[in-house]
Amino acid sequence: MAAIKAAARKDGFARRKAAHAVDPGTGAARLSELLAGFRGVPLAGYMAIRTEIDPGPAMEEACAHGLVGVPVITGAGEPLLFARWEPDTVMTEGTFGALVPADCDYFEPEILIVPLVAFDLHGGRLGYGGGFYDRTLEQLRARRATLAVGFAYGAQQAGSLPLESTDQPLDLIVTEQDVIDLRG
């Protein structure tokens, strides 16, 4: 399974890189439109790295209506924690080069905007392979309803993905072109 996932990741990274080169930033407007329906619900986005589609503008807009945070990796095999973030938050480099607040004020979000390498139309998500979002979503969903919103370029869609029983499904996928609701 590891080799199959590695091949799928390689393909997903290539498609994401090509999409990012053509359109590095229009998807945030569609994400903002979706988040407008959840004003005031605590949410966590992420600080884009490499060729990830950037949720920053949508996160900035959401800050005017409620609590917004970013993920903090505390260790291998651990779920993510989420630190409060605002546009003027002093940031420092965290694990894997993603920016995190210099002073962390942690909270539990009810909506997670999730970065990814590839997705399918069944809610499958392929990430970087560390399992951080899967562990985190499993933990949060055990306590309360938690919405997982995959944010990606449309080109990152795969026909199917090699998934395992521990992989947590996405509820929605937002691309620069569309909002895909998988909640049934």
TrEMBL record:
Its EC number is 6.3.3.2. One of its GO terms (biological process) is folic acid-containing compound biosynthetic process. The keyword Nucleotide-binding applies. The keyword Nucleotide-binding applies. Its cofactor is Mg(2+). GO terms for molecular function: 5-formyltetrahydrofolate cyclo-ligase activity; ATP binding; metal ion binding. Belongs to the 5-formyltetrahydrofolate cyclo-ligase family. NCBIfam families: MTHFS_bact (TIGR02727). This is 5-formyltetrahydrofolate cyclo-ligase. It comes from Roseobacter ponti.
